[in-house]
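F.,

This is the one I mentioned.
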């Protein structure tokens, strides 16, 4: 389990309690060297690595006219570039052990419809993640490593709870199931894609959006 700050790691630790074993690490995934460090920490602690869930992400500005070069680069560094380097580092461990594995990337409906509550950098990075998922799925398949993507819509999290009520009502109005999703509905899908129950699924994007986007 990886967090950007010690505080976020401690918060996750308090939630996890004695469920484990697990370790909490801090990393700034804009630093590409972090990927190998984290993968090796898993090897040293657990003897290997079977599953990677790439769920780091930042939103960036919503207004395209207020998005500067640093904003754009930061969003892509976290939302897309780090996904590649973390996936490659994890796949290297899986390859060396020759036991296969599963990589699950956290995308977004914004990458499929262009985004409503999110800006262009976020939407573009999530669209790129779908392409990256397909590419890595093809490259890693001979190693028995599956790569899939989850694409949630609006989920009740700390971030979305702070959205204006007018925006929340608008998003609910265009969702056939007429509500926001729950975090456990996303985590359950991640567990499925990480498990052997999805052993013949790779290169896919699983939509978790209440029907807001159907493909």
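My design for it:
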């Amino acid at each position: 389990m990886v967090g950007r700050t010690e505080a976020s790691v401690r918060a996750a630790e308090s939630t996890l309690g004695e469920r484990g074993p697990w370790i909490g690490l801090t990393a700034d995934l804009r630093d590409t060297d972090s990927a190998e460090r984290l993968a090796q920490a898993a090897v040293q602690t657990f003897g290997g690595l079977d599953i990677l869930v790439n769920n780091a992400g930042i939103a960036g500005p919503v207004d395209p006219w207020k998005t500067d070069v640093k904003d754009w680069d930061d969003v892509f560094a976290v939302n897309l570039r780090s996904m590649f380097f973390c996936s490659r580092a994890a796949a290297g461990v899986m390859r060396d052990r020759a036991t296969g594995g599963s990589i699950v990337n956290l995308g977004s409906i914004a990458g499929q419809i262009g985004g409503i509550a999110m800006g262009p950098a976020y939407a573009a990075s999530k669209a790129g993640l779908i392409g990256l998922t397909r590419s890595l799925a093809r490259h890693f398949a001979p190693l028995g490593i599956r790569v899939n993507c989850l694409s949630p819509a609006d989920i009740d999290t700390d971030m979305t709870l702070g959205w204006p009520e007018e925006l929340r009502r608008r998003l609910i109005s265009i969702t056939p199931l007429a509500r926001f999703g729950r975090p456990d509905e996303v985590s359950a899908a991640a567990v499925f894609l990480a498990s052997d129950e999805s052993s013949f699924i790779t290169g896919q994007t699983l939509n978790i959006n209440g029907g807001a986007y159907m493909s």
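The first strand starts at residue 2 and ends at 3.

Talk soon.
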